[in-house]
Amino acid sequence: MGRRAASLCLMSTLAIALAACSSDGERENPNLFPTDYRHEIITTLQNLFKDNDTIRVSGAFISEPVVRPADNSQRYTACVRYTAHGVSPGEIGNAVRIGYFYGGHLTQLVQASQDQCGNAAYKPFPELDKFCIGKGCR
Q1: Which residue range forms the structural domain that includes residue 72?
Q2: Is residue 117 part of a domain?
Q3: Which residues of 5-37 are buried (b: 16+ CB within 10 A; e: fewer)?
Q4: Beta-sheet pairing, 54-63 with 132-134
Q5: 48 within 8 A of 57, measured Cβ to Cβ
Q6: pLDDT of 16
Q7: Residue 22 domain-assigned?
Q8: How far apart are CA 131 and CA 84, in angstroms?
Q9: What is the pLDDT of residues 71-116, one digit of tens each?
Q10: Burial class of residue 129, CB neighbours in 10 A (0-12, 13-18, 19+)
Q11: Which candidate in 15, 34, 93, 132 could, as Cys together with 137 as Cys, close a disulfide (CB 3.0–4.6 Å)?
Q12: Does the pLDDT at position 17 exceed 70?
């Protein structure tokens, strides 16, 4: 029985080693279409505003993800435009952000320049229009 156990142990070790080798050789496709991009953008904004008393959003619009140059490569990006209403003057105003995606997931959501989102084809973003975070939300 000791020989059989040793054999099973060796086979298990080889299987694990082969699995590790095969996954190391595969590379993730950086330009998978971000299928859940709307939800990921809302979640990221919730994290961005989580330390504020109350933030409400109105007039939200979003563009469909498109592949465009980002640094030295091509990445899916989406533009978001909204008005944030908060409890202090610094939390109120119009915002335009660009989201960068890698492997189908949002990696950055930063302030956008006119060059980045000025020509974006925006559509209403009703899920973000319902956005409210903080003590004053119901």
Answers
A1: 37-134
A2: yes
A3: eeeeeeeeeeeeeeeeeeeeeeeeeebeebeeb
A4: antiparallel
A5: no
A6: 43
A7: no
A8: 10
A9: 889 999 999 999 988 755 556 789 999 999 999 999 999 999 999 9
A10: middle
A11: 132
A12: no
- The three state secondary structure string of the chain is CHHHHHHHHHHHHHHHHHHHHHHHHCCCCCCCCCCCHHHHHHHHHHHHHCCCCEEEEEEEEEECCEEEEECCEEEEEEEEEEEEEECCHHHCEEEEEEEEEECCEEEEEEECCHHHHCCCCEEECHHHHCCEEECCCC
Give domain status of residue 61, yes or no.
yes
Name which residue leads in pLDDT, 10 or 137. 137
Task: Compute the Cα dihedral for 124, 103, 109, 116 and give only its sign.
Answer: negative
**Is residue 1 in some structural domain?**
no
Per the listing, tokens 């979640």 go with: 43
Tokens 């109105």 belong to: 58
